[in-house]
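Continuing the batch. This is chain 6 of the set; chains 1 through 5 are on the previous pages. Same settings as before, nothing changed between runs. Recording input and output for traceability.
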Amino acid sequence: ILREFQPEVLFVSAGFDGGRGDPLGGIDLTPEGFAYMAKALLDFAPNKTLFVMEGGYNVETVAESALAVSRVILGENLPLKESESGRSFEDLKELCKPNELAKSTCNKARAVYSK
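Output for chain 6:
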């Protein structure tokens, strides 16, 4: 679709609620997964891709995923070996689990807004 459309600019709504451990997303993407998607878009439209942060409900997941995307934007090669915090991406897969307070708040909001 992108090749056929040939956009002048790519505007990416960079929400990380699809990340592993997010209480709403349920997609289970790792920070490295976000980095690979960002790299694909940057390869398609270098100097014409704009990433704008917009969401995520697990602070650890958002922080590590945003950092992984930022590292790709700055030119770091894939695969990324470890996070800026020094944790391996394998370790992060276990670390990025839903925060119970965030999960509870999201469930309450879902109940209110699903009516």
